[in-house]
Description:
Elements: H1 2-23, H2 31-49, H3 57-72, H4 82-87, H5 89-92, H6 109-121, H7 127-133, H8 138-149, H9 151-158
Amino acid sequence: xxxxxxxxxxxxxxxxxxxxxxxxxxxxxxxxxxxxxxxxxxxxxxxxxxxxxxxxxxxxxxxxxxxxxxxxxxxxxxxxxxxxxxxxxxxxxxxxxxxxxxxxxxxxxxxxxxxxxxxxxxxxxxxxxxxxxxxxxxxxxxxxxxxxxxxxxxxxxxx
Length: 159
């Protein structure tokens, strides 16, 4: 009985495969290709219908400048070291304002140095910080702490 059921199902599946191969122009780039072309044509037509009025060169340049400023964020707020940019800015922001990491601006250099030592020694648990600090010596950590401690004064001077 099992063999009969398996045989019938096998014949049914083969029949479906043959039927799909005979009718399946969409599977061979036929109808599907036309559908994609039609969508592209409609998108161009609707874009042309809703096109804004032409802007002057001055307005275009102003828009480009605004977009560039928005994209850059507050990168130009004040100068930070290359080491801070590469190791800290992705989490703490270019000016220490905090993105996914905590806000650093306003912290004293002593407090930052203590926290850096705690992360490196494992007293504070954060695998990302520990990984960044594992090859740093006390002098480098002190330089980072001093730089971060100056962020508030630098921000005030930049305004």
